[in-house]
Design a protein that fits this description.
The structure is a homodimer.
Chain A (H helix, E strand, L loop, with lengths): L8 E6 L5 H12 L3 E2 L2 H10 L3 H7 L6 H10 L2 H20 L4 E4 L3 H7 L5 E6 L2 H11 L5 H23 L11 E4 H4 L1 H13 L3
Parallel strand pairs in A: 1-3, 1-4, 2-3, 4-5
Helix pairs in contact in A: 1-10, 2-5, 4-5, 7-8
């Protein structure tokens, strides 16, 4: 199935709780290609020699906003280790993209562009009210106000991470080939749209 | 055909030469609803009592960048007349949106949001190389370097205009429900995607 895809490599950037992972999973099943999310971070660990704890704590949030900004301004050792982790992740992303696949997050769109590897770059987002349902599933027992805070912080951290490593604003659509509001369009319909473009048919 | 549309009102923001008007025309034919571009500015003239020359020169570029910035900073009479024209255009846009239609440009997405009128808000863009073909059709006899300058200036003027009247960056996808790179996805395919969403079928 994956042999005749117009875009064999798909990157998905997303807001927290905008169903990016769900859409990646649907596409993975329909197109019969793997998707990589948090799991592939472990591959980075193996390649880079970092401890699993170090890489997991870096994620896309770089531990905590204040720590990140502090390190950003002072260029401390901790900051440098994040850079090393990012470099190791770049190698993993470029290696993954040698085969058809879907890569969620980790500035994969930028990494592949820089490496000259073609990809269909997607960004998924939604209004807060729509994302609250997913947030409640992921963080049971929290009230709406707290869920909103969690989402806001996650999105801020991702945006800072993207800005730091790519030099671009992750909310500027010109980084991507298509940006879809999953709440307005619908999760299944978003998957349909991306699938159609990736197959290059219809 | 227009009776059962999930999104009877569509707004299209676009980069210069990204085929926004072409896609509006295709959608207009397929969905059997009118689209409004430069033509509806003339309605504004009638409603607002401005001369046709005044309104045509305002367009979305506000005459010239330097004039606009100067007026923006000094709040001169000329600047106020642009505000009055914008206000008049708002009334026209809100009136047009009482019936199913497509509105291209003029911050229609923002105007309708402010008025509480639901719409599907689309932004269309593309890489410079793709847009050059359209630019050459619109401005025959110019070399590539000059066409690039024309496009860049048009986009800058539109971006400033949008920022001034909406307070938002027109390149931030969260203003819209979907943003499509017409060069990567293809003009016809973009029309397919929008049509599918607007009909709410499939």
């Amino acid at each position: 199935m994956a042999d005749n895809l117009k875009f064999p490599v798909i990157t998905i950037g997303r807001e927290y709780c905008a169903y990016g992972r769900t859409i990646a999973r649907i596409l993975s099943e329909r197109l019969d290609i793997p998707y990589f999310d948090k799991d592939f971070v472990k591959k980075t660990v193996i390649e880079s020699g970092f401890s699993e704890d170090e890489v997991n704590s870096e994620g896309e949030s770089i531990s905590s906003l204040s720590l990140f900004i502090e390190n950003f301004l002072n260029g401390t050792a901790a900051y440098n280790s994040y850079d090393d982790i990012f470099e190791a992740q770049k190698h993993v992303i470029v290696n993954l993209a040698k085969e058809p696949c879907i890569i969620v997050g980790r500035c994969a769109d930028f990494v592949l562009k820089e490496a000259g590897i073609p990809s269909l770059d997607v960004f998924l987002y939604a209004e807060t009210d729509f994302k609250l349902k997913r947030a409640a599933e992921l963080h049971p027992g929290n009230d709406t106000a707290h869920l909103k805070k969690i989402m806001k912080k996650q999105d801020e951290l991702r945006r800072i991470y993207y800005k730091h490593y790519t030099g671009h604003d992750s909310y500027d659509f010109s980084n991507y080939d298509l940006c879809l509001n999953t709440g307005i369009i619908g999760v299944e319909k978003c998957a349909d749209i991306i699938e159609d473009i990736v197959r290059g048919t219809r």
